[in-house]
Amino acid sequence: MIDITAPRAPVAPLAPTQLRPLGIDQVTLTGGFWADRQRLNENAMIPHCLHWEHKVGWINNFAAQLRGTLAEERTGRWFADSDVYKLLEAIAWEIGRTGSPELESALGEIVDLIAACQQDDGYVNTRYGNAGQEPRFSDLEMGHELYNVGHLVQAAVARLRTGHGQDDRLVQVAIRAADQICATFGEGGIERVGGHPEIEVALVELFRATGNRAYLEQARLFLDRRGTGTLADFELGRAYFQDDIPIRDAEVMRGHAVRALYLLAGAVDAAVELGDDELLDAVEAQYKRTLERRTYITGGMGSHHQDEAFGADWELPADRSYCETCAGVGSVMVAWRLLLARGDLRYADVIERTLYNVVAVSPSADGRAFFYTNTLHQRSVGSVPPQDEASPRSSGSGRAPWFEVSCCPTNVSRTFAQLGTYVATSNDRGVQVLQFVSGRITSDLPAGRVTLDVATEYPENGRVRIDVVDAPDTAWELTIRVPEWADGATVDTGDGPRPATAPAVVLSEGLTSGATIVLDLPMAPRWTFPDERIDAVRGCVALERGPLVLCAESIDQDGADVDQLRVNPGIPATDTPYGVKAAGWQTTFDTGGSPYSARSSDAESRPAAISYIPYYAWANRGPSTMRIWVPAGAEWRHEQTVGTRT
Amino acid sequence: MIDITAPRAPVAPLAPTQLRPLGIDQVTLTGGFWADRQRLNENAMIPHCLHWEHKVGWINNFAAQLRGTLAEERTGRWFADSDVYKLLEAIAWEIGRTGSPELESALGEIVDLIAACQQDDGYVNTRYGNAGQEPRFSDLEMGHELYNVGHLVQAAVARLRTGHGQDDRLVQVAIRAADQICATFGEGGIERVGGHPEIEVALVELFRATGNRAYLEQARLFLDRRGTGTLADFELGRAYFQDDIPIRDAEVMRGHAVRALYLLAGAVDAAVELGDDELLDAVEAQYKRTLERRTYITGGMGSHHQDEAFGADWELPADRSYCETCAGVGSVMVAWRLLLARGDLRYADVIERTLYNVVAVSPSADGRAFFYTNTLHQRSVGSVPPQDEASPRSSGSGRAPWFEVSCCPTNVSRTFAQLGTYVATSNDRGVQVLQFVSGRITSDLPAGRVTLDVATEYPENGRVRIDVVDAPDTAWELTIRVPEWADGATVDTGDGPRPATAPAVVLSEGLTSGATIVLDLPMAPRWTFPDERIDAVRGCVALERGPLVLCAESIDQDGADVDQLRVNPGIPATDTPYGVKAAGWQTTFDTGGSPYSARSSDAESRPAAISYIPYYAWANRGPSTMRIWVPAGAEWRHEQTVGTRT
Question: pTM for the whole thing?
Answer without folding.
Answer: 0.95
